[in-house]
Design brief:
By secondary structure, the chain is of the alpha/beta class. The protein has helices at about 1-15, 25, 30-40, 80-125, 145-160, 175, 245-255, 275-285, 295-305, 335-350, 350-360, 370-375, and strands at about 125-130, 135, 140, 160-165, 185-190, 200, 205-215, 235, 260-265, 290-295, 310, 325-330. α1 packs antiparallel against α4. The protein is globular, with a radius of gyration of 28 Å.
Length: about 375
């Protein structure tokens, strides 16, 4: 509410005082034309010299006059320039009238928004507001079928609260636009060393795994296995960056990138369960083996009609500095130590139940002791 209220007041200010919001180039048409010509940027306006309308653009104030040059003249056409000046004068007069009416309306709306903001503040203690991805099984989806959804229900029930969701795809800017913006109180899974949120104590630790068809009997455990040199290897990447995740770093160190097929971890957002694409590629034989984050692999391997083996990756000394295991926590706003403590107390009380939930979704769980033996 506070964000929307601030934006409303900013819009009113800019409407009534357009000169206060202009950039230097918007005050100087020649400078604006030079800037737009050099950058290739062509903001378009609702007004045109031929009586037709251009596609909506930012504002007539930003119209690049160079777009309306006469072929026989080196300067701006007289008609185009006059049109812009008329538009400016007419827009200024319109603003004066609109501003008076808008301010009255905005003040009434602001009072209403303030009322709802106060009502929300009173209701907040009884709500566990969760930010989650609407299409990201096994973690969460809008049908609340993921283990993060079930964990949120468990937390809310334990604390005498009800769950409400702010759905937002976990793409770039997720935490800035959700948790930091105050749209929610908790994100159900963050790395325990995460610095964009205040993590709780870890509630599970998982690892990257090799996924292969059981009938192939590959029995892979390490990136040093010589069999990998003859195999088609599927990996997940973030935004086309092939070296951005641990498996691709390990494969690159061994000169195996020529064997790799990359699958975007986000996938096609119009599809149901986009991360499942890589596991499906293993089942269909499009790749021989996949290296996948454990919770994704364990869940979708169970859904496969073809039996699949899921084996934790064992790091070797060649992989020093490349982590394959991660501890996972819940994350709250950095100043919300009260909520962090509530969640920590919950995790202490319900540790066995949380572990049972994770195991029911096929999440491979590892401990530090297991990791040492793997070495």
């Amino acid at each position: 509410m506070a964000i929307r209220l601030s934006q409303t007041m900013l819009d009113i200010f800019q409407l009534c005082h357009p000169e206060r919001g202009r950039t230097p180039e918007s005050k100087d048409p020649a400078a604006a034309e030079a800037l737009d010509s050099s950058s290739g940027f062509r903001p378009r306006s609702r007004f045109a010299s031929n009586g037709q309308s251009h596609t909506e653009g930012l504002s007539v104030m930003k119209m690049p006059i160079g777009n309306l040059r006469n072929r026989d003249s080196r300067g701006p056409s007289t008609r185009a320039y006059a049109l812009v000046q008329d538009d400016r004068a007419g827009l200024a007069r319109t603003r004066q009238g609109v501003c008076r009416r808008t301010v009255k309306c905005a003040l009434a709306c602001s009072l209403l928004l303030a009322f709802f903001a106060a009502a929300t503040a009173f209701a907040a203690p009884n709500q566990l507001r969760v930010c989650a991805d609407p299409n990201d099984l096994p973690f969460s989806n809008s049908h609340q079928q993921g283990f993060e959804n079930k964990l949120a229900d468990m937390v809310a029930s334990d604390l005498g609260m009800t769950v409400s969701y702010e759905w937002f795809p976990q793409l770039n800017g997720f935490f800035r636009k959700t948790l930091k913006a105050g749209l929610c109180d908790v994100v159900m899974s963050v790395p325990s060393s995460f610095d964009e949120a205040l993590p709780t104590r870890p509630y599970y630790r998982s690892t990257y795994v090799f996924v292969s068809r059981r009938d192939r009997h590959l029995d892979l455990h390490s990136f040093d296995d010589p069999a990998l040199r003859a195999l088609r290897i599927g990996v997940q990447v973030v935004g086309g960056e092939e070296g951005s995740l641990p498996p691709t770093q390990a494969l690159s160190h061994r000169g195996l990138m020529r064997n790799v097929s990359a699958f975007n971890i986000v996938g096609n957002l119009s599809m149901s369960n986009p991360p499942a694409e890589l596991i499906d590629a293993v089942a269909s034989g499009d790749v021989d083996v996949a290296v996948v984050w454990g919770p994704l692999a364990g869940y979708f391997a169970r859904q496969s009609s073809v039996p699949l083996d899921v084996v934790p990756v064992c790091a070797s000394t060649r992989d020093a500095g490349i982590p394959f295991e991660f501890a996972i926590s819940m994350g709250v706003r950095r100043n919300d130590t009260a909520m962090q403590q509530k969640l920590n107390d919950f995790l202490e009380r319900r540790q066995k139940d949380v572990r049972g939930l994770l195991e029911s979704y096929g999440v491979p769980l590892v401990s530090a002791a297991q990791a040492q033996r793997c070495q």
